[in-house]
Amino acid sequence: MSATQHDFEVLSCGQAAQDVWHMSIHSEVAAELEPGQFVNIHVPGDGAHILRVPLSFSHADSKNGVVELYFAVVGEGTQRLAAMAPGDRSTLVGPCGVGWKLPARQGRALLVAGGIGLPPIVAAARMLVSAGIGFDAVVGAQTSDKHVEDLLDCLRTLCKDEGCDCARKVVLTTDNGTRGIAGFTTQAMEGLLAENPYACVYTCGPHPMMAGVAHLAKGSGIACQASLEAMMGCGFGACSCCNVALKGGGYALCCSDGPVFDAEEVAW
Ligand SMILES: Cc1cc2nc3c(=O)[nH]c(=O)nc-3n(C[C@H](O)[C@H](O)[C@H](O)COP(=O)(O)OP(=O)(O)OC[C@H]3O[C@@H](n4cnc5c(N)ncnc54)[C@H](O)[C@@H]3O)c2cc1C
Ligand code: FES
After folding, report:
1. Which domains, from first to last, does the chain contain?
2. Strands, E, within the chain: which ranges?
3. What's the gap in Å between 192 CA and the centre of ligand 2?
4. Residue nearest atom 3 of ligand 2, based on CA coordinates
5. Residues 153-182: pLDDT tens digits?
6. Cβ of residue 97 lying under 6 Å from some atom of ligand 2
């Protein structure tokens, strides 16, 4: 489905963790979104120096037309988004980009999320569980108050649906040790890789974290998909400002060839 402009209405908007907001929107785009794709949101107000804000989603409820967004407030665009109230309206362009693929190999998946990389990882978990594929997850944050509780609950509920021990299956880390394992997600990942024969890895988070995850997956001979971020202009392949360097030489466009890439293809 190609990206087109849609209206949306804010259903709710509130803080979900330190510096992270949760916004539920109503839009007909919900029926077209595939897990791992993104929407490009027009924030109301003076548009002179603000481009659309590209955001992934954790869930698109096609029946009720609801899309769940979680975003970190980092600059003027996301500040303005966070200030939107129920009933406020704007437009978005979507569905944008290429999302997650189901694994080629049968077997359990390992999901690794860092910081605000968690929303598309929750979308990946839904996709996997719908296809009858079980998963374990590592979710990292800098500090305990940056963990997004709603999204952790989503992951645990998906684990429960799968009928497994969710406390063991969703492993938390914090950089400063205030919750879960002290250290980076890659350290927790190494432990899980040593104990489990995973068929595939899905990751989204800070670029250095994904580079580490891709390296560990490759070392274990496991296919890895990574959802990348790049500064974006148009969001649909027209301005060439979202280049991703490829291992084999040349560049791909994050907005239209990605944001999800086979980690093997990326020049980390
Ligand atoms: C495909 C895609 C999906 C995304 N999904 C999410 C999401 O689900 N939740 C979320 O919180 N954020 C997500 N982002 C990042 C989000 O789009 C940016 O944080 C946002 O556009 C910043 O806008 P701003 O006007 O608030 O900040 P700006 O004033 O534009 O920038 C503030 C700071 O953020 C950095 N920044 C801005 N845009 C990006 C970007 N695209 N990638 C990396 N750094 C950036 C700038 O370098 C600057 O340091 C996604 C980005 C992409 C490309
Ligand atoms: S943002 Fe314009 S080509 Fe990707």
Report:
1. 4-96 (2.40.30.10), 109-220 (3.40.50.80), 228-268 (2.10.240.10)
2. 4-17, 20-26, 38-41, 53-56, 59-61, 66-72, 89-96, 109-114, 135-141, 170-174, 181-182, 200-204, 223-227, 243-245, 251-253, 260-262
3. 36
4. 237
5. 999 988 776 655 555 689 999 998 999 999
6. no
